[in-house]
Amino acid sequence: MKNLFKSVVISTCLCMNHSAFAKLVHWNPQIPSSLDSFNGDAAQLADLTGNRIFIYAHPQQKIKLPTFEVNNARTAQFYSAAVVLPTSTGKVEQLLKHFPNYVGLFPTLKSAKVIESSGNIQQVKYQVHIPTPIPVLNFKENVLMQHQVDKNSISTLIIDAPIPFAAGKLEWFALAENKTLMTVTQWGDLNQPKGFLFSKILNALPEAKLGISSGTNAFLLEALQQRFKSSNPIALPDGQIPQIQLNAQQRQKIANLSQQSSQPVSFILPSYQIKQAKAVEQLRFSTTYHYYPQPAEKLQPWLTANASQQLFPKQIKRVDLKQHNAQNVDAHFKVSVGLGVIQIPFNFNVRFHQADASQNQYNAIGGDLKYVKGGMKLLPQAQGTLLQMTTSLKIDNDAPFLIRAMRSMPYHDLLPAVGANTVYALKVQQKLR
Q1: pLDDT over threshold 50, residue 280
Q2: Which residues are the signal sequence here (predicted)?
């Protein structure tokens, strides 16, 4: 749960840099297509995506970028994400190929100026500003990108940014007359950040790197989803969490994607509506799957109420447990999240209901966070185990000031959950090695 802040802050930072100008760079993109893991079949990816944002990783590969200081190939792992938009590819293409359109499309982007152009290649200087009530966390930076426009894609090379070595690609595929599959694929070398604030945050929270790729993809596709899709919240009955309906073939595909990449696979679900006392609240849940070669019995300890303290001892200072019966326990968390330039302390209480050793549900019952809700389940495979984790993390208006300030970040209702799920799954993986 301590990832509530870092996923929001770090995921949006990828857009920022120090101002720089450069001539057009000769570049032969080596970015995998989002369809590579689906045999080039857009319909198959769209069917699995459904009405959600779907995020997955590719196997590691070697890559060379012209921005590398030394002309040696590096190991890169690209992350892709997909969303189905109820509009024509023509409208998507018209929006994305005109880069000044990005102002107003992506939150925090204040200006986009083409500074160099030749044929299908353009260099664009973007200005990003993320104001927060906490001055030391205010961002106002520039980023320089080179875009290469092709038939149904735009490949992008980072020229100058806090993450100086990065590349990505937007792709769009026609599914029907007014139905488009939109995807993003990107990678950035998070081990060589520059810029005071960004470096401070990553040095203070090195495990935050685990969730940045999924958060970045979620940020980009949520912006496009909100442009083209209307939101109609789904009523969620009391005491329940959303359940994704997948057939056996889709579940096997998810397990294969996670196993081949050694990374989680995530779905960001549509908006749900819950009743909390006399109020009605909208929540965004993320469901993450991760494959482990170990049997389910080896993962059962990581579903217990105090497991998160073992994974994040620097942030979770203390967990006090109150056992009600064999299935219900209340956990009181004392947390302090250091962002390098500021320390954010908070407490919250969560009730865990564990029906059996292989599944649980958790709900906030007090403290500084009202909207912590979710559950975990272990799904045994022919070989190994698939962890399913569904979570919603949302900061409410009554939270203490330092926490409430995070509401100024874009998509604060969905980025924390997908980041938290991803980091949790990968920290468990590290423990099991």
Answers
A1: yes
A2: 1-22
pLDDT over 60 at 16, yes or no: no
pLDDT score of 11? 45
State pLDDT tens for residues 266-278: 999 999 999 877 7
CA gap 315, 251 in Å, rounded: 34
Is residue 131 within 8 A of residue 152, CB to CB? The reply is no
Q: Which two tokens stand for residue 109?
A: 């982007």
CA distances, 88 to each of 94, 96, 172, 226, 277 (Å)? 10, 13, 10, 15, 42
pTM tops 0.85, yes or no: yes
Q: How many angstroms from the chain centroid is the CA of residue 408?
A: 17
Mean pLDDT confidence for 95-118: 95
pLDDT at 252 over 80: yes
**135 burial type by CB count under 10 A (0-12 exposed, 13-18 middle, 19+ buried):** exposed
Q: Tell whether 165 and 253 lie within a shared domain.
A: no
DSSP string, 122-148: EEEEEEEEE--SSGGG-EEEEEEEEEE
Tokens 């549900």, residue? 361
- Judge if 224 and 261 occupy the same domain: no
Q: Give the phi and the psi of residue 145 in degrees, each rounded to 5.
A: -125, 150
**CATH number, domain at 222?**
3.30.530.20
- Whether the Cβ atoms of residue 406 and residue 271 lie closer than 8 Å to each other: no
Alpha helix (H) ranges present in 116-275?
196-204, 209-228, 248-261
Same-domain pairing of 350 and 372: yes
The predicted pLDDT at position 22 comes to: 55
Contacts of 278 (CB under 8 A, 6+ apart): none
In this model, does residue 246 exceed pLDDT 70? yes
Q: d(Cα 294, Cα 301) in Å, to the nearest integer?
A: 13
Domain interval for residue 204: 3-228
pLDDT in tens, 384-399: 999 999 999 998 888 8
Token output for 284:
């965004």
Domain end among 183, 209, 228: 228
